[in-house]
């Protein structure tokens, strides 16, 4: 699966530097981005549910979350080197890229897809499909900042 560096205002080189730093953390931990992010999602989901004791993440999920957070922090640090704090505060870090064709679409393509989704729902301009909220701005040139990960490249 692909990962991308979500850093508004960063140059392509800064984003590449961030992805390289985050990937290095994942590689040192011997973990894929998917596994690490899955741990983070489990902890965040538990937080969103209000920390029910019977649904606490496993130790493996906590460990994976720590790797994801460390990778994202390393990516931010490398990408934003020399930036002022106020600019750095707008950076989200690493994110998984599940569907490059959709998530990296240009604005015109994204808007056309949004219209298709809303029309397909019921034609009343009401929609229940939250995919339209996942369109990211600005999407242009993001594909250059993506690094493909595969299980065959594990250390």
Describe it for me?
The chain is mostly helical. The chain has six helices and three strands. The protein has helices at 12-29, 33-48, 59-79, 85-88, 100-103, 107-121; strands at 2-7, 91-97, 147-148. It has a three-stranded antiparallel sheet. The protein is globular, with a radius of gyration of 17 Å. Mean pLDDT is 80; it is low at 132-155.
Cα-atom Rg, whole angstroms? 17 Å
Strand order in the largest sheet: 2-1-3
Biggest beta-sheet profile: 3 strands, antiparallel
Q: Percent range for helical residues?
A: 40-55%
Mean pLDDT: 80
Count of helical stretches:
6
Structural class: mainly alpha
Beta-strand percentage? 5-15%
Total DSSP E strands? 3
The residue ranges in which pLDDT falls below 50 over 5 or more consecutive positions are 132-155
Q: Characterize the overall form.
A: globular
Compressed to H and E, one letter per element, the order equals EHHHHEHHE
End-to-end distance: 16 Å
Notable characteristics:
globular; 10% strand; 155 residues; mainly alpha; disordered C terminus; 50% helix; three-stranded antiparallel β-sheet
Please describe the topology of this protein.
Blueprint: E1 2-7, H1 12-29, H2 33-48, H3 59-79, H4 85-88, E2 91-97, H5 100-103, H6 107-121, E3 147-148
Antiparallel strand pairs: 1-2, 1-3
Helix pairs in contact: 1-3, 2-3
How would you summarize this macromolecular structure in one to three sentences?
The protein has 155 residues and is mainly alpha-helical. It is built from 6 helices and 3 strands. Helix content is 50%, strand content 10%.
